[in-house]
Amino acid sequence: MAKDSPIEWTHHTFNPWWGCIRVSQGCKHCYADTWAKRFGDDLWSARSERKFFGDAHWREPLKWEREASQSGVRRRVFCASMGDVFENRPELDAHRARLWQLIECTPSLDWLLLTKRIENVRTMAPWTHSWPANVWLGATMENQTAADERVEELLQHNAAVRFVSAEPLLGALDLTPWLSAKLSRRIDWVIAGGESGTEARWMDPAWPQGLRDQCLAHGVAFHFKQWGHWAPAELIEETVAAKSRRVTLRQAGGLIDLVRVGKVKAGRVLDGQTWNQFPTSAI
């Protein structure tokens, strides 16, 4: 859990527990698993126990609620960065029930529930036609296969905001069938980003550019979170060492070099701009 989270699209993070199971290609180099292992926790398998927390941990969002209510400025809470709220394990049911109660009693906080298991929302979330106004529901879609499997299920739910997290973005992604303003329910927000970490896979610049262009064409908010561990060489201000790993891609405009420089140096500028858009439908 973190107040004032470093994640660019949220203010705070809250984890009702730590631990998960890998379910798709986007999970291959899970940052949460790597982070947990730094604390000596082995939590990422079907056999592993989940790590739970005490009452002091659960009271923290109540403090954030008071601060947001007193200031009149809403705060976004990403839940959960170290697991998946909709993982299907019986021992999580009581903690999920406690989370639903916490969400309903913190109306000044917008809760961002991001999952790779969107198919479980229907049976696990307590809300059907009427969702709390402070719940944003998102699904991770790292490639077109994941999008084709998950978008329709995401759009079935009447959350205040329905969003897509295309991070790590592992392939070209066409979301246009689900972005039109003519739809009764559409994607309200798209987050895109490359993979970080020493084993990170590179991201073709055409992939986030394509998502950005789709969003602009349909008036949907777009947020570019990061290049990740790899970035176009032309974006790196300092001289890239000759021994640095690089990949050369062929695009319509010619060749482009990607270099492995790390998340901090890679930054998050896309075509000369930092994309920090948020959904207008948010309260």
Taken as a percent bin, the fraction of beta residues is: 15-25%
Q: How many distinct folded domains?
A: 1
H and E order: EEHEHEHEHEHEEHEEEEHEE
What is the terminal-to-terminal distance? 24 Å
Count of individual helical segments? 7
The biggest sheet, with number of strands, parallel, antiparallel or mixed sense and barrel status, is:
7 strands, parallel
Radius of gyration over C-alpha positions, nearest whole angstrom: 19 Å
Helix content: 10-25%
**Uncertain runs with pLDDT below 50, 5 residues or more?**
none
Main β-sheet, spatial strand arrangement: 1-4-5-6-7-8-9
Shape: globular
> Structural class of the helix and strand makeup?
alpha/beta
Mean pLDDT: 93
Q: How many distinct beta strands?
A: 14
In short:
The protein has 283 residues and is α/β, with parallel strands linked by helices. It has helices at 31-38, 55-71, 93-104, 121-124, 144-154, 206-218, 263-266; strands at 12-13, 17-18, 51-52, 75-79, 109-115, 135-140, 161-166, 189-193, 221-226, 230-232, 246-251, 254-260, 269-270, 273-274. The strands form four sheets. It has a seven-stranded parallel beta sheet with strand order 1-4-5-6-7-8-9. Strands 10-12-11 form a three-stranded antiparallel beta sheet, with no helix packed on it.
